[in-house]
Every structure is written in C-alpha cells, then in structure tokens.
Amino acid sequence: QLTKTGYTDLAGHCLAMRTTINGKPVTLVVMDAFGKYTAFADANRLRTWMETGKSVPVPQIAKTYRKAKDQQRSQPSVEEADD
C-alpha cells in the first residue's frame, strides 16, 4: 500500500511500510538494515512470521553485521571521549 525507504548515519538503511496482513492493516518499520535492499528481505521475513507464526532463518551476513554494530556501539564515541 505504502512504502518509504531512507538512510541516516545514525539509523542506517530503513524502511517504513504500510500493508495488509491476514486482512488487517499493519505498519512495519525496519531500521539499520545491512544494505540498501536488505530491509525489504527483513520485511518479508516479518510478514512470513506474522502470517504463519514460523520464523525464517536470518542470513549469516546479517548476524555478522549485527555483531559488528553491537561492538561498535559499545565503544565510546569521540564526543564521549572528549568529555
């Protein structure tokens, strides 16, 4: 029904989507996706889970990206180091 993509340094690649799942209106927001088109794959995995209750495996590259981002977030930023 409605889809909007975007990117910021802080939020990464994002997708906001308004759709219908099982006859009900749903809004999905995916933030900090691994790549420009990965948010659509993430939205499809969410849709499958919402429709069937079954999870779909997350690709290993996405898990690696998440781990790297988590480590990056645990490091003090330049602004914090200057305080």
Automatic annotation (TrEMBL):
<feature type="domain" description="Peptidase S11 D-alanyl-D-alanine carboxypeptidase A N-terminal">
    <location>
        <begin position="1"/>
        <end position="34"/>
    </location>
</feature>
<dbReference type="GO" id="GO:0006508">
    <property type="term" value="P:proteolysis"/>
</dbReference>
<dbReference type="GO" id="GO:0009002">
    <property type="term" value="F:serine-type D-Ala-D-Ala carboxypeptidase activity"/>
</dbReference>
<dbReference type="InterPro" id="IPR012338">
    <property type="entry name" value="Beta-lactam/transpept-like"/>
</dbReference>
<protein>
    <submittedName>
        <fullName>Murein-DD-endopeptidase</fullName>
        <ecNumber>3.4.16.4</ecNumber>
        <ecNumber>3.4.21.-</ecNumber>
        <ecNumber>3.4.99.-</ecNumber>
    </submittedName>
</protein>
<keyword id="KW-0121">Carboxypeptidase</keyword>
<feature type="region of interest" description="Disordered">
    <location>
        <begin position="61"/>
        <end position="83"/>
    </location>
</feature>
<keyword id="KW-0378">Hydrolase</keyword>
<keyword id="KW-0645">Protease</keyword>
<dbReference type="Pfam" id="PF00768">
    <property type="entry name" value="Peptidase_S11"/>
</dbReference>
<dbReference type="InterPro" id="IPR001967">
    <property type="entry name" value="Peptidase_S11_N"/>
</dbReference>
